[in-house]
Amino acid sequence: MARPGLVKQAPPLDGCPNDSPVLVSSTCVHLVGQSCPRDYGARAGQYPAAHDNEHFLAAYDVQGGEFVHGELPEAAGAWERVAGRVRKHCGRSLISHEILALSRPQHIERIAASLHPVPVHVIVMGRCLADVLPSTYQEKVKQRDPDVSWPDFLGNCDRPDGMWG
Fold first, then answer.
1. Does 8 fall in a domain?
2. In a shared domain, residues 164 and 105
3. Per the domain annotation, does 32 fall within a domain?
4. Is residue 58 part of a domain?
5. What is the value of pTM for the model shown?
6. How far is CA 59 from the centre of its chain?
7. What total of structural domains would you count in the chain?
8. What is the pLDDT of residues 125-139, one digit of tens each?
9. CA-based angle 66:100:106, to the nearest 5?
10. Cα–Cα distance list, 10 to 7, 110, 151 (Å)
11. What range defines the domain where residue 121 resides?
12. Residues 116 and 154 both lie in one domain
């Protein structure tokens, strides 16, 4: 647990509940950024995405697909497109996707170099594993394995050689 005073809660954007958990708050920021870019930009900065899946594709691209099983040819160049929008923008920008948290040192070096000379601030949000499992399952079904059952998914998570073993 963080010491008092080290973590400050940002004021919510319009339409976001004040007492929402981190996932809902970050999802709300993404939704506001995607659906109302002018409103988001006026309050918080630029959300540099041409479509709602671009930050996922950019994260996949900058990490070389290391953390997502399967080929995504549509991700080629996505990171540079997003980073280019950030470099051209005079003001704050938000690049956000959960798989960026898995970045290795070489990914972080590439991210920082591609955004230079823009100062980079990193915000890390943590969630309880019980909160993460349903969304991870949904992403797995949506992106890779539409036939996996919830019990099979949970069984894989609990195995020593499973995804969190």
1. no
2. no
3. yes
4. yes
5. 0.62
6. 8
7. 2
8. 777 777 778 888 888
9. 60
10. 9, 28, 37
11. 22-126
12. no
Calpha distance 79→56 (Å, rounded): 9
- Which structure tokens are listed for 140? 């797995």
The alpha carbon dihedral of 143, 147, 150, 156 has a sign of: negative
Name the one residue in this structure whose structure tokens are 């509940």: 17
pLDDT tens sequence across 37-57: 555 555 567 888 898 889 999
Q: Are residues 105 and 135 in the same domain?
A: no
> Cβ(49)–Cβ(82) under 8 Å?
yes
Separation of CA 132 from chain center = 13
Say yes or no: 116 and 106 in one domain: yes
Q: Which residue type is seen at 66? A: E
pLDDT digits (tens, 9 = 90+) for 87-133: 998 888 888 888 888 889 999 999 999 999 988 888 877 777 777 78
Q: Quick check: 144 pLDDT over 60?
A: yes
Cβ-contact 115, 85 below 8 angstroms: no
